[in-house]
Write the structure tokens for this entry.
Amino acid sequence: MEKTFGNTRVTLVHGDLTRQDVDAVVNAANSSLLGGGGVDGAIHRAGGPAILEECKAIVARQGSLPPGRAVVTTGGRLPARRVIHTVGPVWHGGARGEAGVLRSAYQESLGLAEAEGLRSVAFPSISTGAYGYPVAEAARVALEAVAERLRAGSPLAEVRFVLHTAADRAVYEEALEKLPA
Ligand code: AR6
């Protein structure tokens, strides 16, 4: 399913982020940028060591990456040319600013994709795995954050959400249906 905001299509697919034929994929990383499990582990496995080398250079230069911020590296051996690494919030019940940090993670990632002159970017469901964010709430925050930025005008042609399970895709579909174009 898809919906258009401004000039940009938002699409939802069920699949593997590392296989997406887009300009950039977004990594749900942690502040160390040294890799981990989940989609982070899958990106480093599929993309090879060049990504980790660039991550280490970034941390040496600017320190660890705070939640809600984003940085960009090469895509290594991935079909995507770039990986945008962002850090979502750890879920602590929702009263510790989690939604604001999640929203920032999406919007900073889109800003970097635009600054890099990219046309298409694919996101995983940030924070809803190891970080424990309830998926229905995360889907609403994620889609609202993306739609808001795209409505303001963006050179991106497509923003794709790649959901790892059919159940997660259904949750994102429901949230996208409710969102005004
Ligand atoms: N393609 C698309 N989605 C995936 C894939 C994949 N190949 N693999 C997992 N997912 P998580 P987080 C989904 O845990 O909650 C890491 O260790 C997964 O099913 O990857 O932001 C980092 O280093 C879930 O829906 O990210 C951090 O320490 C979603 O991706 C921490 O986990 C996010 O789950 C970040 O936790």
Summary: The longest helix spans residues 98-115. The pocket of AR6 is lined by residues 16-18, 28-30, 36-40, 42, 88, 124-131, 162, 164, 168 (CB under 6 Å).
